[in-house]
Amino acid sequence: MSLLKKNCNVYELKTCSERAIINEMWLCIYVRVISRAPGLKIVVETLISSLKPIGNIVLIAATFFIIFGILGVQVNISERQ
After folding, report:
1. Among residues 8, 36, 34, which one has the least CA distance to residue 21?
2. Is the pLDDT of residue 61 over 90?
3. Could you tell me how far CA 63 lies from the centroid of its own chain?
4. How far apart are CA 1 and CA 31, in angstroms?
5. What is the per-residue pLDDT across 31-53, written as a single tens digit (0 to 9) for each?
6. How far, in Å, CA of 7 to CA of 77, rounded?
């Protein structure tokens, strides 16, 4: 249980398996907290279900940023020549 100390730095662990063990322990703690609070469980389920629509919006916004970024560069290049 000495791995769960507050001042334990995960990045100083030697192997990847030690990091995985620490991450799994923290995940178990989070799951236990979520299961004890029914309101928090609803919030977490809502956040997880909203990831796909949010991802779609981010994808559309990124597409527009890329398109207008390319257009902006092309306009600036043509103005300088």
Report:
1. 8
2. yes
3. 20
4. 19
5. 888 888 888 888 888 999 999 99
6. 53
Cα 45–chain centre separation: 16
Structure tokens at 65: 């940023």
75 sits in which H/E element:
helix 51-80
Domain ranges, ordered by start, for the chain: 1-49, 50-81
Q: Which of 1-10, 19-28, 48-57 has the lowest mean pLDDT?
A: 1-10
CA 7 to chain centre: 23
- Could you tell me the pLDDT band of residue 21, with boundaries at 50, 70 and 90? confident
**Structure tokens of 70?**
């390319």
Q: Provide the CB-side half-sphere exposure for 27 (13 A, CA).
A: 6
